Amino acid sequence: MRLKRALRATVTLAGAGVLTAAMMVSLAPTASAGTTLRASAAEKGRYFGAAVATGKLSTSTYVNVLNREFNSVVAENEMKWDATEPQQGRFSYTGGDRLVSHAQANGMSVRGHALLWHAQQPSWAQGMSGSALRNAAINHVTQVATHFRGKIYAWDVVNEAFADGGSGGRRDSNLQRTGNDWIEAAFRAARAADPGAKLCYNDYNTDGINAKSTGIYNMVRDFKSRGVPIDCVGFQSHLGTTLAGDYQANLQRFADLGVDVQITELDVMTGGNQANIYGAVTRACLAVSRCTGITVWGVRDCDSWRGSDNALLFDCNGNKKSAFDAVLNALNSGTPIPTTPPPNPTTPPPGQVGCSASVSVNSWTGGFVATVKVTAGSAGTRGWNVNLTLPSGASVTNTWSATASGSSGSVRFTNVSYNGQLAPGQVTEFGFQGNGSATGLTPICAAS
Ligand code: XIL
Q1: How many CB atoms lie within 10 A of CB 439?
Q2: Which residue of 179, 346, 369, 396 has the fewest CB atoms within a 10 Å radius of its CB?
Q3: Contact partners, residue 250, CB within 8 Å, separation at least 6
Q4: Could you give the CA distance from residue 183 to residue 199 in angstroms, rounded to a whole number?
Q5: pTM above 0.85?
Q6: Which segments within 53-183 are labelled E, that is strand?
Q7: Cβ–Cβ contacts within 10 Å for residue 28, how many?
């Protein structure tokens, strides 16, 4: 029954028209001189994130490096199924909520990891199968995505569902045995629960064009063609001492399917090549305009799950390693994400000074979800607002990552506490859901 209800509640975005209000331009690579990962990534319209163990947020060396260098976080374990639903139907959000608060207080976005995965399942779920497991899994997706609704930039809806080796097929698991459509059912439930979050498929050993990444590629292509709501693919990138020569080409072929790509769990085996590989991965992301950010899987070497591999960017005392320099240099010389130019650069219209905004709308009969991208001008912002005039008959029913005043006609959206401050060129997104149709929206951004 739960499954039926969840599916009925699903917003179908199939056949949705995507409208972009302003034309995009490509920008040539520009050198910049950011000194922190977060500032340099933001200058290029990207985020730079770290996996966080919330128990370490009271360790000063750790938190100082985290807050100085990173503007995105993901819970290393606290948002996984075993942590969030230790007993069936009893949810526990203490660790996840703590991470979200830390992020909001420090101008960081949050990746959600992971709604469904064959590993780190609570023991009650490990023992389930068939429709009971399917219903429990979809309920888990709905409950957790609803709890964090409006606070998550991107969710790893499904993690590691493909097999290693040459088959290119699915990994066997209790979830897979509930039927091949478990992944799309999870994406639909996640979209219905949090229409503002980007929904990602995430996996490892996908660092180049190989049988496993091609299996995933085929799934994403199929999902896009059938309107299954998927927005992004995460490449974990737990790397050894070499990097596949077609690492960037692989990211690009996914981007060309119409999804964002993200490097989600980067860590690299120590050794002579470590800094080079870190630099090459960063350059690859920046060379792909739909690569929206990079997350490393931990802060200091001794925080890493990879034991003695010394796989991260900072040593155990919080000192920068040469791998850090390689990443920072790559960020500073990378290509900015194409941004929306003001209509006339010499005489910007009133309201466009200080920031610009563009909107994309996914609509279906009777309703829509709009995502608005706010880009700070060269002075950065302390706060911003975006004015929009909705067509007659359209109204806003729900807003995330901004506060709306008014719900029809002329509506003003103002930043919330954690996304008002933007560095020069930094991009943030907010969104709203509404009734009616929302064609031809022209957002006007003003900075304070
Ligand atoms: C790891 C964590 O880092 C460890 O603390 C935990 O014991 C096991 O999981 N792929 C993933 C991550 O998607 O969730 C894993 O994280 C690393 C591999």
Answers
A1: 11
A2: 346
A3: 206, 207, 208, 209, 213, 235, 244
A4: 12
A5: no
A6: 72-75, 109-117, 154-159
A7: 6
**Residue closest by Cα to atom 3 of ligand 1:** 305
CA atoms of 264 and 159, how far apart (whole Å): 11
H or E element at residue 140: helix 130-147
**Active-site pick, 69, 160, 184, 429:** 160
- Ligand 1 geometric centre to CA of 330 (Å): 27
Contacts of 372 (CB under 8 A, 6+ apart): 357, 358, 359, 386, 388, 402, 413, 429, 430, 431, 432, 443
Q: With beta carbons less than 8 A apart as the criterion, state whether 289 and 297 touch.
A: no
What confidence tier does 196 reach under pLDDT thresholds 50, 70, 90? very high
- Percent of the chain past pLDDT 90, that is, above it, reads 74
Residue 237 region, left (φ>0) first, then alpha (ψ -120 to 50), else beta? left
Ligand 1 in contact with 305 (CB < 6 A)? yes
Choose the weakest-confidence range: 6-20, 63-77, 367-381, 402-416: 6-20
Q: What is the position in ligand 1's atom list of the atom closest to the CA of 204? A: 10
Ligand 1 mutation target, pool 113, 200, 233, 297, most atoms within 8 A of CB: 297
Question: 293-336 pLDDT, tens per residue?
Answer: 999 999 999 999 998 999 999 999 999 999 999 999 999 998 88
> Which residue, among 139, 75, 63, 140, has the nearest Cα to 105 in the 3D structure?
63
Q: Ligand 1 pocket test: which of 56, 76, 84, 202 has the largest number of ligand atoms within 8 Å of its C-beta?
A: 76
Is the CB–ligand 1 distance for residue 248 below 6 Å?
A: no
Q: Is 265 a catalytic residue?
A: yes
- Cross-strand pairs, 440: none
Q: What is the whole-number distance in angstroms between the Cα of residue 79 and the centre of ligand 1?
A: 11
Q: Largest Cα–Cα distance of the chain, in whole Å?
A: 65
For a substitution probing ligand 1, which of 305, 306, 309, 312 has the most ligand atoms within 8 Å of its CB? 305
**What pLDDT does residue 87 have?**
98
pLDDT in tens, 367-414: 888 889 999 887 888 899 999 999 999 999 888 889 999 999 999 999
